[in-house]
Amino acid sequence: MEFGWNEELEAFRDEVRAFLDEFDTPALRHELANRGEAAQLGPEQSRLRESLEERGWVRMCWPEELGGEGKSQWFQFVMTEEFAKREIPYGSGFGTMVGPAIHRFGTEAQREKYLPGIWANDITICLGYSEPNAGTDLAALETLAVKDGDDWLINGQKLWTSAADTASHVWLACRTDPDAPKHRGISTFIVPMDTPGISVRPIMTMSGGRTNEVFFEDVRVPSDALIGEVNQGWYIIANALDHERVWIGAGGGLRHIFDRLMAHIREKRPELLEDDVVRRRLVELELDLDVMEGLVLTNASIVAAGDTPTMEASMSKIWTSELRYHISNVAMDLLGHEGALTEEADGFAPLDGELERTYRASPIQRFGGGANEVQRDIIARRGLGLPR
Amino acid sequence: MDTTLSDTQRLLRESLRDYLANEVPFDRIRELEREGGADQALWEYLAGAGFLALPFAEAHGGEGGELTDTAVVLEELTRRACIIPFLETTASALAIERHGAEALAEEVVRGVISGAVTIAPALQGSTPANGASPRVESGALTGERRFVDYGADVTHHLVEATEDGEPGLYLVETTAEGVTAESLSTIARTPLAQCTYEGAPARRAGGAEALQFLRRAGRALCAVQCLGNAQQALDMTVEYVGMRVQFGRPIGSFQAVQHHCANMATQTLSARFLVYQSVWRLDQGIASDRQIAKAKALASRAGTEVTMQAHILFGGIGYTEEYDLHFFSRHGKERALAWGSAEECLRVAADTLDEVQPWQ
Prior knowledge:
The complex is a heterodimer of chains A (about 400) and B (about 350).
Chain A (H helix, E strand, L loop, with lengths): L6 H17 L2 H8 L9 H13 L17 H14 L8 H11 L2 H13 L4 E4 L15 E5 L2 E9 L9 E7 L10 E7 L5 E7 L5 E12 L4 E2 L5 H17 L2 H17 L7 H29 L6 H25 L18 H14 L4 H12 L5
Chain B lengths: L6 H17 L2 H10 L4 H9 L18 H12 L7 H14 L2 H13 L4 E4 L12 E3 L2 E10 L6 E8 L2 E8 L5 E5 L8 E15 L1 H36 L1 E2 L2 E2 L4 H30 L4 H26 L1 H4 L5 H13 L4 H10 L9
């Protein structure tokens, strides 16, 4: 057991900090603030991203057979943490999830065709998983891909396809054998979004963000759009979902909310700190954040030791997603009516409206990425070994 | 950073777990509860097998190990509901060895390692009406201390007292004239005493630094005990609901039961990180009162809530005296209160809110 960082990692942390000092410019901040939901990186972010690639920092911890350097996962952890502290994104969205899947299950030609674009963020990806009748029960999906000569012909509908309006490609799960047991008749495809027959309709959410429904009408794709074997898709998806769970589990943003809440109270509402009850509630939030950090580090330790966390990843996902609701809820409560103000309220809103924004956006963290009820099932069955 | 057990720790845990499973049946605990007092046979085994030597300096005959090794041992002892002054003796001797009177350190540590010396800290508790504060004059200690774990069952007390207005720690032999220890009954049924000193001969064992270390070590290690009780109750529950059949199937296959178990497991693992982190930091000399208080608050809650939820899932069988679950719910609650309850610890954290630094 060790709860500190060794010299090599401390040195690397310093390196990342120096790197960020160089790139954390007003120009980058301006670009990030005005980015909206664009999938393409702006010039400043691209510059940062290229420089990361040059240093080999993006995939340094991946196994060598996946094109990485096989370094200890702690390097990735330290880098992610330092970027999170500054609130500068460096990942390429779902590319970090789909890239490894293509690397692992694709052909040599497919790797050459897609991976450089994914790493450079020229290829951006949305996830074509959920459907009207396949949500938590994802394996019930019905979008059909039928072999037609050398091509595949795709018909069906996807739902909650975030970024479908901006992404260049969709990572698509289709049914390829309707007669097989539901987990054994699914295949995965990568399809350009400008393929004829694809149409996208927006769905606005209460978070203010946009998601979409996507319709596939006689969409014809060549045989090399299929990634992996026919009907191997569920295995590939399950593999990728594991990555998504860990990804959503990273809750650095919550520390910032707590810090900004403390700063707001100290500066604008110091009378609150005279109240023992308020102080206690703040300490409880801090403790919840400590637990979050502990769960994240526990997971990272398991990964660094070469094992795969199962129940621990689910615990981290549950905790972080529920804390996102809880911290914004308690913070709004402590501040009283001003907690309801949005960023449009002429500069009056505490934390520039971040609390109410976080509160509104918090439900998706709990039901998305594998609903928390399913996570508890996973802890009980896969982790604790309870019977079905 | 590595939250997993080292090979040494795994080995310590396995060998002690085997020994306790074979040699300390729960009926032995029942017997000790009836008769009062600590498990002398177990203490002798721990001394003989070297478990008592783990955290002490090699110069004093110790193993020079990590304090987390000792915490792993303590957790295992807790998981068997063992009644021995392991935390008390270890924390006291460490306070003297690391921060106390050098002249005493060698004698005390060698005594502890041999099994001959056991020590109970007798500190200023957080509960008010604590009796007359002990004072030392010309080597004689006078005063009272309440809530002394194993106070009537050890060879020495390490008493917080003032001398010329300065606080310090004083070592008192319990067989000396002027020392009385009266047993207090608790929910845990483990030994607790109210102690009176009337001109008892006392040797100065340390000053403010030793006292601070002892408070921190006691609280951090008590958090380990809370965690051990929670972990044991969780593991027993998972085993039980996996085999208890109702409605034609194991009750552990019902989602409501599974989700209770998932929450218990999450609460236990959450506490685990902070608790062992506290012990490790204490060992490295970088602990803070605030961090240890937060860890103890979390562990206190886990030790209470997880063990009581276990009773709900066990139903009637877990409610009986003949079943073993109550050891962990009773010990869990008592340990939740010892060395600072969740409420007391959260107050410490709330009073020091100004120490919170932004994430950077």
